[in-house]
Amino acid sequence: MSGSIPFYQKRHRHYDRGYRSKETESKVSQYQFSSRYTAGSAASTTSRSRGLELSSHSGLEESRLSHTIPKRAKPTYLAVDKENQIIGYVVPIFRSSQEFAAGFSDTDEARVRDTSAYMARRDMFTSGLEMQRSEQISRREAMRESAERISLNKRIHEHEEHFKRMNEDSLMHTPEFVIKPRSHTVWEKQCVRLHCTVSGWPDPRVVWYKNNVAIDPVANPGKYNLESKYNVHSLEINRCDFDDTAQYRVSAMNSKGELSAFASVVVKRFKGEIDESLPAPRHGPVSEYGVTFKTHIVDKFGVSFGREGETMSLGCTVIIYPTLHRYQPEVQWYRDDVLLSPSKWNHMHWSGDRATLTLTHLNKEDEGLYTLRVTTKSGYETYSAYIFVRDADAEVEGAPGAPLDVRCLDANKDYIIVTWKQPAVDGGNSILGYFVDRCEVGTNHWIQCNDTPVKFARFPVTGLVEGRSYAFRVRAVNKSGMSHPSRVSEPVAAMDPADRARIRGTSAPWTGQIIVTEEEPAEGIVPGRPGELQVTEATKNYVVLSWKPPGEKGLEGVMYYVEKCVSGTDNWQRVNTEIPVKSPRFALFDLSEGNSYRFRVRCCNSAGVGEPSDPTEATTVGDKLDIPSAPGKVVPTNNTDTSVVVSWEASCDAKELIGYYIETSLQGSSVWEPCNNKPVKGTRFICHGLMTGEKYVFRVRAMNAAGLSQFSPESEPVEVKAAIASPAPPYGITVLECVHDSMVLAWKQPTFIGGADITGYFVDYREVIDGVPGKWHEANIKAVSERAYRVSDLLENKKYQFQVRAANMAGVGIPSRPSDTFLCEEWTIAVPGPPHDLQIREVRSDSLVLLWKPPVYQGRDPVNGFYIDIKEANAPVEAWRGVNTKATEKTFIKIKNVQEGETFVFRVRAQNKAGVGKTSEETEPVLALTKPGTKEIVVDVNDDGVISLNFECCDLTPDSKFVWSKNYEEIADDSRVDTETKGKMSKAVFKSPGEEDVGIYSCFVTHTDGASSSYTLSEEELKRLLQISHDHKFPIIPLKSDLAVEMLEKGRVRFWLQAEKISANGKVDYVFNNNVVSQGEKYKMNFDKNTGVIEMTMESLTPADEGTYTFQMQDGKATNQSSLVLIGDVFKQLQKESEFQRKEWFRKQGPHFIEYLGYEVTPECCVVLKCKVGNMKKETSALWYKDGHEIKADEHLGFTEGVLKLEIAQISKKDSGVYEVVLKDDRGKDTSTLNLTDQGFKDLMNEVFSFIANSSTPLKITSTDEGIRLYTFVNYYNDLLQVTWHYKDSAIAFSDRIKSGVVGEQLWLQITEPTEKDTGKYAIEFNDGKGGLRRTVELSGQAFDDAFAEFQRLKAAATAERNRARVAGGLPDVVTIQEGKALNLTCNISGNPLPEITWLKNDREITSDEHCILKFESGRFASFTITGVNTSDSGKYSILVKNKYGTESADFTVSVFIPEEAGGKKK
User: Does 1181 score more than 60 pLDDT?
Assistant: First the structure.
């Protein structure tokens, strides 16, 4: 269908044909007009159909427009879209055309017949006459229905007017959008109009918003145009750009309510015109509509310097408020306004709150201005800083820097033209030329393309293989050597441009794909002549030609031959004789430099070779591009304290200028350093990295492909310091007091003061009448220095606005924004007005100081105090809380215990007797954090006793000043304090410190980031400082130790003291009883100035030396003395000690005792008497004596390692006595005595007893047949050892039943026949003359039961053993007896009860008879008698005794022999 909408417009329901180009719109109108009046019924049908389709361009649906309004229904002229949203009006118009006839018949059948589809089918079978009749009927029906509709509307209107007159209240209703604004997608630089229709009474007030920010056409003149007529409101946006992509809201509000409608505008660009530096528009619905984002970029990277080959990371922290889940901003990085994409050179990272760009391998191409752009739906924030890249260290000293920016300009199948930029550093010698290297993609093999260096920064590389891709690099060379290679170029393929174009294809704009087709080529036609042949580039190495193909269409594939001839001849030679070229561009090589040539081109195809083109003008082979001229005057101006802005005049008539290099040098130095290593195109550049306070000169040179120009003239020297600018506008204008004809205003200092002190302020005012401001008038001709001013000559009950401008030495800044509108009427309130001029000082992590000025308006009574409020910066108004509960009379306060890292704001309220007044303006947010490098005021007292307060600031600027204050009021009276500043240090010196100097002293440094500190000088602190000052004025040599005396060997006496610090010029006077003594035989003096030790020695003391000794010291102004009084008993004791030491010294000249005779007790309880001797020799004798009797040497005496010993193994009372050791030889004699009698012996034994006690084992329990025994063992027992047994902590009284004793090394306590009464705690105590030692045991409970049971068992066993039958002695083992003799044997028998006795012979019982008589007499004696033995009596006999406790037997053997057989064997 000819009237259909293109496919790329159907995709957008909000497409509006109003955004077509004027040319396109005109063509469409002409096409529709001509089609509408096409002859024939088919044409009429088509025109009607087209009319409906054109309406759909405005978003209307065909079915909705063509629907007939039912009878008696209110007619509607509103057009709606598919979502039933009202998008416009449908205005009925009577026309002669048939296009509006359809859709207005009375019946559904007529509507069906009148549809375009029905008409199209009917046209195939009906005649033109029937068609004309049908159209006349439809026209009459439409006219009748329109007349009825108009009549109905008139009646409705009259009824509504009558209703309004009857009830006016019913008119008021909330705003309602009859037509809402609709969204649009437009191309950049077009205009877009949003419009809506609003009803409501009273008439609504309509405001347009962009991203919830009210649109102000005055603030953006020419950008926005607002119109409101007949309840139709429109917003027109002129020349849309990407920043206009947003959500727009229109708000309608009256006294009955408010209603809003939304529409989106998306601004697009044609693909071929896209500026890559702009972010792409967002697609799809924006879920965060209604939210206004605030973006802050903090922790920013600064101007940075890197070196080739290094890695550098740039990063910023991005804070977006509010934080929405899953919402991510668009983060982009730019270099010199060109969008960067991730590559092997650039790595980008976004962590959610920090954006980072990493340059993996720096090259000079990476130098430039880097910009971070963070885009949200509410707008974008950017931050920029310059990155400088210096050359890497050359491999050869003096070699030039590497070339940069290697590119491929013209790529063909047999050549590629490579270009580059010359480096800024030539190494101190002119660059001889450049070598170009190539490398086939996929390999690492680099091949040098030129044998000799080329000076022109453009070179054609030949000898390439068609279809292969290559990368290139360039190296510079001078007489010192070769530079590093440049960064590798992007790969490029060696092929014909026509082939490359076919491979790439044709891309379309965003809206779709453009398909390009060619006409069918005509065969057999020779092409015509090429046109517009010209030499586009000519150097001494090559010439590049370009032309346009012949104008004929449909030719078979055309190729070209290039011909040349020397000027002045007509001898044309074909250059490409073998293969014609396909593209209309060709490079010629191997031309003779200096010769002049003409060129022409022929077209050819399969039909033949065409006529040649017109020849070019004569072209002389050589470099046509000249080196640019030197730039003009160079003007440096101050920028910051480390940078300078350098401007210069551009090179005259420079062709193909690439840029400029800037160099700098310290004034008076011949060493020049490059400021940039990448050429800049403008005539202005900021040179960073300079030293503050130094003077620099600058020079510039221009560059093109031909080379570098000469240097410009050197600039005037410029000192590096921050530039001065006019201040920013003040802000926060408030009214402090108002009377009938004047107002007192206050305002806040500009955030930027321009680098110089503000010299004053100018106030303007204007009257506001009925909301319309008038003309501005000056309130003060002379600048005011305070931030408060009374504006006089105002009219009472009039409204005024005010603006303020700040001025410094650079000039007057721009005015502030107009203040709120204030009414000039006299204040009559009883409470005070607001305090003003709030300032924050001394910000630390846990505290800060707030200053303010009292209110101008006092109220009914004078101000008597102030209250301070605090809250977190982002907290709501309800979070304000008081700092002080009791009003302070001062105009400053130190706020402590603030939370570190939190941001706060403050305000102040004044009070009088009537109450608390208005609050002041809140302060700017302040972060509670101690800044790095913050210093505090330090108090100092110098050597002259002068007290001063010292404050150091490391962040000074050239304009910084130290301002000292007392109680936060600047010190104007110098009668008490002098201030002086040197460099970074300032001090306040007290002239005559006194009580009137007590207070808080503070120092504030201007033109810094709030550097300040304070020091509280209290009365106690003042007293301390005055004492230190006195000590400094009248110094005392400090002493580590006062004068003391000590005894030296030989009885010498040493008087000494030590000074803590004394110089080499120190002097000492030695005084005795107020008389100065000097060096001599009696006194020896020494003064060690390194250690401060002062000493005087005397050989001995005599009674005449009793008195007072004094050392008097002097070191410059410092003095001190120390005295020692030696009189009375103190002197006598010292003298006695001196004599003793003297005698000791003489004693030690011969054999002597180092340690006198003493004793020690070994763990084995042996006593060893020992003494340590010295100065012994072989002839020296050592004799031991006891009680005057010499002890002879035996194994108990010893002498080892200078120790004499006498060992007493088991000491007893007999060992007590007086022991003596005598040493003597020819040098002298020495004696040592040890008294071991009485107390001495007792002490020795106590030590022995202590060893015995400590060796005792824990007290244990055992049982015997007599009772229970408690015992302990010791390693050694001595008869003199005293022990005491205790029962229940009481000494035991021994009896027959309870006894104690010693068996060997066992000490025991026996309890005979124990009972329950004997249970309890028992202890044995060893007496060692000191505290003694106890061992305890608990005999009770189970321990007693077990011991008692064992006792019973043992007792029973003992009884049985004692009463059992026994045979005791009297019977031999063998009895040998002569036959005939009598045998009588008797043995003792015991046992209770009396045992039974049985005699056995050869294990057979025998009885008593005449031959063998057996008797038991007296219950004890058993006898065995044989009156006359014979040989039959020989055998083994046994006696067996038995009672109830046991049985025992005794055996004996009887052997009877015959005398004559005495020598024989026994029978």
Answer: yes
